[in-house]
Amino acid sequence: MPSSPFDTHLDRNAANYAALTPVSFMAWAAEVYPERVSGIHGSRRFTWRETYARCRRLASGLAKIGVTRNVTASVMLANTPEMFEAHFGIAMAGGVINTLNTRLDADALAFMLRHGDAKVLITDRSFSAVMAKAIDGLAITVIDVDDPEYDGPGECIGTLEYEALLAEGDPEFPWRPPADEWDAIALSYTSGTTGDPKGVVTHHRGAYLAAIGNILAWDMPSFPVYLWSVPMFHCNGWCHAWAVAARAGTNVYLRKVDPLAMLELIARHRVTHFGGAPIVHSMLLNAPEECFAGISHTVNCYIAGAAPPVAVIEAMERRGFRISHIYGLTETYGPATMCSKHPKWDELPTAERARLNGRQGVRFSVEEGMTVLNPETMLPVPADGETIGEVMYRGNITMKGYLKNPTATEAAFAGGWFHTGDLAVMHPDGYIKIKDRSKDIIISGGENISSLEVEDAIHRHPKVMACAVVAQPDPKWGETPVAFVELKNGADATESEIIAHCRENMAHFKAPKRVIFGPVPRTSTGKIQKFVLRERVRSAAAIDV
After folding, report:
1. Which end of the chain is more exposed for a tag (fewer CB within 10 A), N or C?
2. Domain 257-437 in CATH: superfamily?
3. Could you report the per-residue pLDDT of 433-476, keeping only the tens digit for each?
4. 45-204: which CATH topology?
């Protein structure tokens, strides 16, 4: 083809092109709002000028011990300033941050450190016991964080101490954006419920756009006050660390989710934004009435990790918490879909508004595509709100792939879409509603029963705190639903009461045939561990494969 004048003498250069990286948000916040408060952790306060300098000191120290492009630096940290700084400092050195799940056992952690070829580990003293076992036999440099807000057991296990490393670092460290925005910025491991977990690799461009996507979807204004109830190890805190920097906001750190501590911090610091799984919101709702007394402002909340029960959305709205329902996966940098609200919904009754908000919604504007396809034909399912297909994504906030696992990567991207494994319907207005994970559909007497639909009905019972529904083998029907129910503090209910409640709110055949009361097992991010419950009822037909 003949050359076009639009392709001639119009090349990229230092003046008109820079690789996208979320690290640039930190530099901007420190340049424009240097004296604004960037973080609050107990009695500690930081400004954006100070946080930027600390991140550069960290990058300088890491560079001296060999962290450079494509070198993995793992972190085992609570939601503290050091965890926030790691999301910038490691990338400033050119490295890849690998945030470790703080609830995993030593064997799982050791697998991740080995598989990711981690050269450096930054670890909080509170995790020293499990990390000492995990690093046994590994050639890895360990940097200890001794958080003054932590007064529990744990010894330092490393050869370096975090604050000492920063003290020796250069606050003017001349970091540079990556040469290629496709370079890896993070390595995140998915939960391995059946076999080894997969290492999800994400890049600078995607992290930058995911942060912007969160800001746009949430309509996040300048200077938000963000409470860290989302674990920063989970999808890099849903990319919110980078988003808060882009808005020059204030991070309010929280070492562990505690509803009373959360409500106290929300009131004291006038927190404007936080996120969490449905159980986090349920825990807040279960707090004593007087704990809400000091909260008179609007609080914007992301709810994700599982389909939120309509009852939870209704109750949070009555408390003055603005719920935004989001959905995504580690492979999509966390949130990639949101139930974007329409102004006309405000005129609807609370129950109907909550029902609409209970859908997963539409794609983030920075994701190029999200749809529901028949995984066999790769054709869209009818937008009738009934036909079930698989949720699929494509675009800039979809992972690079799985580390050292080309087979899994190829399967995940088959047909030019990322296959989530989540089953959903498409409504006529283009909003999706997840019906289940493919392995969570209960087939009883030839009829499909969505465990999420049953769970939503149970959640509407006023005594229920949390629940999970799985399949149990049945000689007549093949499978029938069994419900695990966790009641609110001080509440008492019977199996027949829960079953009768379900039959009043749904087709009788969908109601659980058995109810088991007690704590529902969860991951550190609040997701209910259904595989544990399947094993408990020995439901061979529903065990993960």
Report:
1. N
2. ANL, N-terminal domain (3.40.50.12780)
3. 988 666 667 867 656 687 878 888 898 899 999 899 998 887 76
4. Rossmann fold (3.40.50)
